[in-house]
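Subgroup meeting minutes
Present: P.N., E.W., G.H.
Scribe: E.W.

1. P.N. recapped why we're keeping a running log of single-chain structure predictions: easier to compare across weeks, and new members can see raw inputs and outputs side by side.
2. G.H. added today's entry (482 aa).
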Amino acid sequence: MADTSCSALLLFGATGDLSRRMLLPSLYALHEDGLIDPTLRIVGTARSEHNDAEFRDFAKQALEEFLPADRRDEAKLATFLDRLQYQTLDASKIDGFAGLAEKLGDTSCGLSIFLSTAPFLFEPTIEGLRSAGLAHENVRIGLEKPLGNDLASSRRINDAVAAGFSEQQIFRIDHYLGKETVQNLMALRFANMMFEPLWNSANIDHVQITISETVGLEGRKGFYDDTGALRDMVQNHMLQLVALTAMEPPRDYDATSIRDEKVKLLRALRPVKAEEMVRGQYRSGAVGGETVKGYLDDLGQASETETFVSIKAHVDNWRWQGVPFYLRTGKRLAERRSEIVVQFKDVPHNIFSDRGGKLRSNRLVIRLQPEEYVRLQVMAKEPGLDRTGIVLREVNLDLSLTQAFSKARRRIAYERLLLDLIEGEQTLFVRRDEVEAQWKWVDAIRKVWEGGDMEVKPYAAGSWGPNAAIALTERDGRSWHD
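Output recorded in log:
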C-alpha cells in the first residue's frame, strides 16, 4: 500500500453539490478519526472566485448542513478547516494550471486528485495537469462519472487520461462499490460454505436487481435529459451489481483478481432483444402522499428521454446459462430501494403435499438501501398438532447489518473511496476494460432503441413503472419482488 503522507489532495469541482453533500463531510469524518495524515493539505478548485478564507466558510456551512449533529466536534472542525485551501481555475484554459501548481507547491511525495467534471473538460484538464507538472509518477487521479456517453466518447476520455497517467494511477469511481452492503455481497458469497455451492443455474431460478428512486429531476434537468436512466444508472451502478453477483470466485481479495473476474462476466452478457426491455417515462401522480408533476412538466419541454428502464438480461456462461437477470431502475417510483433478490428453484419433491403442506421456493434478499440487511426467506412448520394437516409458512432469517454492527462506525461510500484513493488501493475502483465492456453492452441496447421500435411507455408517478415492465416477468411465470 502506498505511503499515506501525500502532500495534498486536490478536489476539482470543490464548490459543487457533490462536494457539499459528500466529499467535504467524508473528508471531515476521515480527519476526525485520524485516518488521514496530519500533514495532508486539501486544495479545492473550481471556476467560482474564492480565496482560502471564503472556501473555509463555504466548507463550514456545508458541514453544518450535512454532518449529523453528534459528529460535530468544534475543535476538530477547526483543525479540519485549517487543512483547506482554494485556487480559482477555469479548467478549459491551460494558462490557469500554472497558478494551481504554484498553490499546491511541492507534490513530489504524492498528490491525489479527485476529478469531477463535465465530459468535454476531461481532455483540457488532463492537458493542463500535464503542462503544469501535475501528472508525474507520484500522482493518483480519481475520475467521477460520467465517463462519456457511449463507448466512443468513453474511449476518447480514457485515451486522454492515459496520455498523462498509467492505469495504475487511475481510479474510476462508482460510488456503489463503496457501500458496505455491496462489499458484503462478496463476503456473503465467498466466506460462507452454504451459498457458493448453490450459486448457479442448477439451483437459482432467476435474479432481480432493483434501484428505484422516488425523486424526480432534482435540479439535474439538462444532464438527465441528455443522459436518461439507461446511461445514468444501468451502465455503471446496475452492471457493477450484476458483475459482483454473478462473477466467478476471484483468486484473492485484491484489485487485479476481482476486476479480472468482473470483466469476464461483463463480456459474457448476451445482447438484449427488443422484447426483453421496456422504456418508460413518468407522468403526474402521487409519491409519499403528495401530488407530483410528470417528467415533461418538470423538464418544461417535449422529450423522449427514458426515466425508467427494465431489462431481462442473460449471462452466457456455464454457471448462469438459462438464468434470467431482471433489472429495473427509475425515477418517481413507489419507494426508494436498492436491492438484489436471488430466487431459488423449488425443491424437487414436496413430501408434505398429502398433508396439505404448500411450499414456496427460498429467496435471498440483499437490501442495500435505505435499510441494510440480508434476509433469507425459508419454509417452516407452523406450531400445532397437525391433526387437520401440516401448515407450512414462509419465515425470514434476518441479518440486519445496522444492528449486527451497531458499535461500528457506519460510513458513507465516499469515505472509503477517498481514503482508498489517498492510499492507492484500487480494489473498489473500475478498470478501463470494465467500463468499455459496460458501454459496449449499453450501446447495443441504444442501437435497438434507435431502430424506432421501442416507444417510451408512460407510467404514473408513485407506481412501479409501466405495465409492460410487469409483463416482462409475468410472461415468464415470475413476478417482481415489490
